[in-house]
Design goal:
Layout: H1 5-11, H2 18-24, H3 44-65, H4 71-81, H5 84-93, H6 104-108, H7 115-133, H8 135-150, H9 162-171, E1 179-186, E2 193-200, E3 203-210, H10 213-229
Antiparallel strand pairs: 1-2, 2-3
Helix pairs in contact: 2-7, 3-4, 3-7, 3-8, 5-7, 7-8, 9-10
């Protein structure tokens, strides 16, 4: 059996049933190895399970941390956090490639470093933790691992359209879209500061500042959303449309 002690240490979780972890590390190619046969178990079922657990944990975290935002931005943020690139990065961080159980053919063609293989193995490991410990432990482990890449989620990842979010919110009550006006611009050419206001129904909702008109409008949209929904502030400084 594979020695998984260092992997468990890196993962921050010690398995009660280490067979689950070994199964999570077993690549499907092994079922096609000469002399092994199609009855060889591998990690695809655990990968399927782990994908669902990952989606749930990240979705719940985004839902609770960002009550200001609707389905669209939250879906974008989840896609930014849970994708093949980010999952492969998690696999590399845990050095999963060193522990994979591969066929000879997969070994000789670079299976230990292949991004898709590492992403699949990471999902399978999450599925194994879920079966071994349940959702509460697994969800906490997922959030802890993802903090290394996304921090404490003070800001919503990949929020690219706050103006669209504001329009969606307002048009749920009125067909009239918001409109934006530049209020002022100050500073020398290389450090311009723009101030823009957003209006709806003839009423000014909020103002925002930015190093471009685009950024100032986005900041105004975020401020309007805060006021309309009564949410705690977030930092709009790097938000673009």
């Amino acid at each position: 059996m594979v020695n998984t002690a260092q992997l468990e240490k890196a993962l921050g979780y010690e398995f009660r049933n280490r067979g689950l972890l070994v199964l999570a590390l077993t690549h499907p190619s092994l079922a096609h190895e000469a002399g092994v046969g199609p009855l060889q178990q591998h990690n695809q079922r655990l990968e399927f399970l782990g994908d669902a657990v990952l989606q749930l944990a990240i979705t719940a975290e985004l839902y609770h941390k960002f009550p200001l935002f609707g389905e669209g931005p939250l879906t974008q943020a989840r896609a930014q956090m849970v994708n093949r690139i980010s999952l492969a990065a998690q696999g590399r961080r845990l050095k999963l490639g060193e522990y994979l159980i591969l066929s000879r053919g997969e070994e000789t063609t670079g299976g230990r470093v292949r991004s898709s293989t590492l992403a699949d193995a990471f999902e399978a490991v999450i599925g194994a933790v879920f079966l071994d410990a349940g959702y509460e432990t697994t969800g906490a482990l997922i959030i802890r691992l993802f903090r290394d890449e996304f921090g404490e989620l003070i800001e919503l990842p990949n929020l690219t359209n706050p103006k669209g979010e504001l329009q969606e919110f307002l048009q749920a009550k009125s067909p009239e879209p918001p409109h934006y006006e530049q209020v002022s611009v100050s500073g020398p050419d290389h450090v311009r500061q723009f101030e823009c206001a957003v209006f709806h129904g003839g009423v000014e909702l909020a103002r925002g500042l930015g190093s471009s008109k685009k950024l100032a409008e986005s900041a105004a949209a975020l401020e309007a959303l805060r006021r309309l929904k009564g949410s705690a502030p977030v930092n709009p400084a790097e938000t673009t449309t």
